[in-house]
## 1
Amino acid sequence: MIDFGYKIQTDRQIDYDANSRRILEFVREGEPSVDWCMSCGTCASACTAAVTTDYSLRRLIILARRGMEKDILDSVFRCRFCGKCFNACPRGVNTRNIVYLMQLAAIKITNHEI
Amino acid sequence: MKFDLFVLPFTLGLIFLLGYLTVKYAVWYFKLEKTDRSKVRKGFFSVRIFSAIKEIFLESLLHRRIFLKNRLLGFMHMSLAFGWFMLIAVGNLESRIYQPAEINPLYVPIFFKFFHANPDAFPLHSVFSFVMDLLLLFVLAGVILALAKRLYSKAYGMKRTTRLMTGDRFALASLWLIFPLRLLAESFTSAVYGGGDFLTASVGSLLGNILPVSSLYYPAWWAYSLSLGVFFTALPFSRYMHIPTEVVLIFSRHLGLAEASKRTSFTDIEINSCSRCGICLDTCQLSFAGGVHNIQSAYQLKAIRYKQIEPKESFNCMMCGRCENVCPVGIDISSIRMITRNELNGRAPDPTFQQQPVAQVHHAEAIYFAGCMTHQTPAIKKAMQSIFTAAGINYWFMDEMGGLCCGRPMMLAGHREQAEIMIEKNRRIIFESGAKTLITSCPICYKVFAKEYNLNIRIMHHTQYLLELANARLIRLEPLAGNAVYHDPCELSRDIRIYEEPRKLISKMVKLIPGDYEKDNTLCCGNSLANFSAANEIRLSVARDAFEKLTAQGAQYLVTSCPMCKKAFEKVADVPVKDIAELVSRSMHKDQPHTITANRKKEPSAALVIH
């Protein structure tokens, strides 16, 4: 085969139908303001935990909307709850409650409760 | 020995109650830690027991603390508790004097008038009759007041009273019936057989004219005994469990027991000691300014006791400690709330916490730890740095790069173990730096440094440190124009009580206006880290209410010493909100052109407009 310098990439589409969005639904039930998030990333730029880890609330909310559970479970417990994200958020999203509820959902998923 | 069938409901109820309590308290005792058990054993035969008895008399019977705050409410509780106690005590004395030789079962003093309707003269007979009638009147006054309070609590200065549960209704109804029934039974007996004094004799002769008292008096004694029996049986399952348990609580507190980081028997004792009097309801800012009425301490303790705890409610509390401050029983509510959060949310720490890097250690005389929140209010950080430089202090700004956390927010989230890992890491670098003093700008950090870190160096909030610098003439403060009101941050008040230092420091610079909501009665800014559930609007309305109350006397600025409070008040304030460090820095560099200008009144934030 002639090498044109191109190759076929593996499929990187997110299959919304295959992914379960139970974490987002669980969070939304307890904290409706999760839907106000516009992924601006101000929270992540203010974050204390982000100085030493790759933790990002913006990313977590996007992952929850996409239903990518494994990635959420990997990083959601790194939050320190200092509350800087809440002060920074331009939309008044109750950020700490979202993280808290995501953690609760993660615990429930590991215990097979939801 | 005197006996009649009607004494059975009372006697069986009492035996059940005593048996239940004995088993329950024995279980609590044996569940205690070994060290706590030995504290109890040793303390029981020491002089501390006398101070405990004194407090039990003053609080459980006379209800002194409630009386000092609210006369009417205090009188109501006192007449019921002390009056009933005296009825039992004097009744026992009376029956012992009357029949010193005879076996005197428990029920005889209670039903003395039935067995000895018109006793032959015995020493002090008329005095006893009079005193017993007087005491009954005293208790009845309490019952009438309690009834009136249920119907119209505003007259008692209470905006809200607690909602009742089924068990409570049973116990409450039988409690309210006990004394009117006793009055009826004794009056009927007096009408038939004579005896009694100003109350029972006159009510008896009055009723004797309109009712067939001779056929009614025996059923009345049955009803009286039944109401006692029902009350004793319902007591352990209702809020009246606080009556015996409060005594146990006072004893255990005097014997040196206290709340720990995990749930112990002491927690159980405290939870069962809550009478749900409702005094905590009106003092809660989430209730009077935020419109949240289901999370107050009386309800939380009830939910914990009956295992109906909801995370949503448990995490909806600002932990300001205002309820704890007014609790007449003195329950350590904040610790119980922390323990509950830990139980709800506890899990093994995230493995990454052990590996996370911390700051590079520097050697210095003093450490400055700004805290997360101070990084969001750079004016405070800059002010502190300029003061340190001006005073010539050899200091190390420990969290200059951010990324360090004191651990308290995580404890509030119920991740105690995870917080302890960070505390240990921070502790190590503080020790390695060799510093003698740790200065922090954040009261939240101050509290956790002072209470959890076990550092053997001086830990100071910057209000204390700046006053010390000013007193040592290391910094020179010039008076500034205007007057200010000082807001005590929750984390520095009540529990920690740093009240005088900030006031002395401010008085050196501007005129300080005293306010109604200061020191132990201070208000939360609404932005508390302890609260996870409350929405932005609720926080803003708490902040607005607190700001209005604080500046009611027309201050030109609001001074606080917490970056979190500063941020919260700035959203709602129409006068400048300044941290004490900014004021000091400004007063030191007075000649420079920078002036404190009035903040523009903020428009409501975007989130408010959308929703």
## 2
Amino acid sequence: MSDETHPDPEPARVDHGVPVGRGVFLGTVVAGVSSLLWGKAAWDRVSGTVAPVAERLVPVLPSSGWRIYSVAAHLPTFDRATWRLSIGGHVDRPQTLDYAALLELPRVEQVSTFHCVTGWTVRNVRWAGVRINDVIGPAKPRAGAGALHFVSAEKPYDDYLTLQQAQLADVLLAYEMDGKPLSRGHGAPLRLVIPDMYGYKNVKWLERIDVVPRVHDGYWEALGYDRDAWVGHSNGYGA
Amino acid sequence: MSYVRRFSRTERLFHWVNAAFFFTLLVTGLVLYLPSLEVAFGRRTLVKDVHFWTGVSWPCALLLVALAGDRRGLRRTAADLDRFDRDDFRWLTGRHAPQGRFNAGQKLNATLTAALTVLFVVSGLLLWFGERDTRLRFASTVVLHDGLAFAAFALLLGHLYLALIHPATRHALRGITVGSVSEEWAHRHHGKWSPD
């Protein structure tokens, strides 16, 4: 086992070997770079099998597909007693809703897919919440209103939708996700859900909605992202 | 007990600079990646900046060590890691075969680590600049960067086990800390290696 006194049976012919390392190196680099073209499709195909196993083995992994992105130093903390949603701007009757009043509004449920502009996707998310009209309507928007300004408690995160975009059938103000109250990382207690647009338009930690004449750049648009963030048709995708 | 030199000062510095950058990137990367850490720690923009600039400095620091240190020695080591002889192939198939200064597993680990480093830097730069220029935005960049992290983490676990825990191999740790290993150990594990 131990002593290798004379390792080479033919000392005259020294085996210098073949340069395999550079092949492995280049092959790995080429395979990795090429995965920029097929990686997401491949992962989408196997993630249905891999993710549940990974989630059981290592529960802290984001196996369900969700990542938590934030812009402020600390995520806002939801306090049921003090939380308010205010509706203002170009309206006749500004409103303030507390959490109990929010839950009393007509409840709707929907299952939709969430796409992040950075490439990850979560399918079949079960949302529950309220339609925007049920929240905005009582405030009586004035003539000339053309857009909504969604303001997050996480400063300086905000974004805009045109009224037309906000009226899409599956746009929701969600307070539940997958059967549980919205968690802190997902924007507790209330977030905007607009499945046809990338995640950055789905403002989390909502604390104010202002009715405004027209859209402006929100937080991410000021950093170069598209105002109309249609999934697959914006931000350089599907151009 | 007599000792033989396994790693030069340059090689050890190269290793530990790489390790320091890798661990900083691993920790900041985990905060960015794991939802529980993100919620607990927050400060995403700060962590992201630290992660990005550490990643950019990583290859620069390694290049600096290589340029300022013993370049010829590093080249010789690289050539050594590159070449696989018949004993290396035998060793890789699980049979007993005498090994040189590096066994075939160490050669593969070094090669893969180098390739992963290149891919980390490329995909990391694409993530960063893809946020600023849609032409550099690919839907698969984040899949690649995450996949690399898992691959590198697996290699790291194996590396740490062999270097710190496995009784037969952990003596090798001496080589990368103080530079030398016992002659008897070298003879037993790296029979074809003749230290200079």
## 3
Amino acid sequence: MSKVNAGLRYSAEHEWVDSSSPVRVGISAVAADALGDVVYVDLPAVGDTVTAGETCGEVESTKSVSDLYAPVSGEIVEINQEAIDNPALLNEDPYGAGWLFTVNATAEGALLSAEEYAEKNGGDL
Amino acid sequence: MTEKYTALYEAHKRLGASFTDFGGWQMPLKYSSELAEHKAVRSAAGLFDLSHMGEVEVSGPDAGAFLDYALVGKLSAVKTGRAKYSLITNNDGGIIDDLISYRLAEDSYLVVPNAGNADTVAAELSTRAEGFDVTVTNVSAETSLVAVQGPAAEAILLELVPAEQAEAVTGMKYYAAATVGIRAGERTLDLLVARTGYTGEDGFEIYVPNDDAGTLWSVLLAAGEGRGLIPAGLACRDSLRLEAGMPLYGNELTLDTDPYAAGLGPVVALSKEGNFVGRSALEARKAAGPARRLVGLKGSGRRSARSSYPVLSSDGETVIGEVTSGAPSPTLGFPVALAYVDEAYTEPGTTLSVDLRGKPESFTVVELPFYKRSKQ
């Protein structure tokens, strides 16, 4: 069963956000497992403004491609070049080295607690 | 539809497989990582459960003549112990399925349709058998199929074959089959072993009664352990066959597909004697020539084309085709795709564009297969 990290909050579209400032964003292990081996990540650029609930990139695996939705609104501060260079990090360490970008959040979309997200998606807390 | 489970379902669960529906069957999609499984098949070996595939026995004095009538190929010309890739079409020449037929004896064949088409093919064969002295028996439900694919496949199989039968394996040609003894503890299972596959590698497909499938699976896993064999799921089977340029029924081949458009003209034996189902339609299709043809596409970027994406002229102005399969090639490191495109754009080297979810990406027509193993 895919792991749900207790210290994070989640969007319905399987992105996680942490509680730091700027907030760090990634995709959940549930999403990474469903996608399969990630081979390509398309991220917004530093300085871009993203809007909660809207697509801001995509994650492509050997067998499918998924849109990436911004879980929060605001300006992109940093992107994880290591994840772009080595997309397997999203599978190996989705809550750690496989993070995607950080945002100066001005607003949040509807976010679920780890418990709510785990219950909805059958993940292990 | 009720989900169907192969005799190896519990074995897959124990190995931690994640499952997917395929042709009404719950099949292992992957065990760990589909990329690792793909690479294992290219470099060592993978073990596949293909028990969802159908098996239809055709036997009787008219078996060869009957299959010449029911399928597009000349199956009567296949030597005993050899196999042939063929198609079963409807009267319009549309493809009902692509299948492999093994000639097991002068008057006996085993026909292997795809999982989702097994019942349809068995029913069609029974209908077409009227007037022929043959018996058509659908044995799909009792028969499992396990494949060992990869450069280490022969060495792994030889670990289990009694020495006096080793030559039946080492001397077995591609698209040949024979009954071979496989040691399983105290027992020796006499099973139909075929040198066929769907991965672009050397390998064997082994037909086994359901009751012995678990035993065969275990002894093959154990025999391959020291040679890099791992269980492999349908996810890597799809990327392997795509690299090898092999069509998948439902993607490249459908009831609406013209065999000539699919590049399967040589499979249609218009020169054989007598009538066969689809003959007049196929003659007309051959004479007219297909409007579109299946080609291989190589991507110039990192993003892959996927099934049903529109193919455009390089200026992006005109829709000239459609992608049927596509993925990032794990072996080659660039995106590959199969697509039907207008005849004028089929020349290798032609630059095209594929609409990747609203963003055009440049692709080039290339010769198939994308990947060809080096002969030893």
